[in-house]
């Protein structure tokens, strides 16, 4: 069976304007990307400390590239 390609948009933000900084979000996202790529052959896009605009742009880019046969994980 052909289940299409697997893609992931992984976002790790340690810094937020209105909240105290996090310590491990970027490191956790990096680990998730590595697992998805190495063990599951996902095509990944990773954003770190991304703004709202950067996140929306990444989603729009994926929306233009992906087809109805593709799969997308957002983490």
Structure description:
The chain has 75 residues and is an alpha/beta fold. It has helices at residues 25-40, 52-65; strands at residues 6-12, 43-48, 71-74. Strands 2-1-3 form a three-stranded parallel β-sheet, sandwiched between helices. Strand 1 (6-12), helix 1 (25-40) and strand 2 form a beta-alpha-beta unit. The two termini are 26 Å apart. The mean pLDDT is 96.
Summarize the structure.
By secondary structure, the protein is of the alpha/beta class. It has 2 helices and 3 strands.
Low-confidence stretches: none
Counted by DSSP, the helix tally is: 2
Instruction: Tell me the Rg in angstroms.
Output: 14 Å
Beginning-to-end CA distance, first to last residue: 26 Å
What would the principal axes of the Cα set say about the shape?
flat
Order of helices and strands: EHEHE
Strand percentage lies at 15-25%
Give the helix/strand layout.
Elements: E1 6-12, H1 25-40, E2 43-48, H2 52-65, E3 71-74
Parallel strand pairs: 1-2, 1-3
Keywords, separated by commas or semicolons:
75 residues, 3-stranded parallel β-sheet, 3 strands
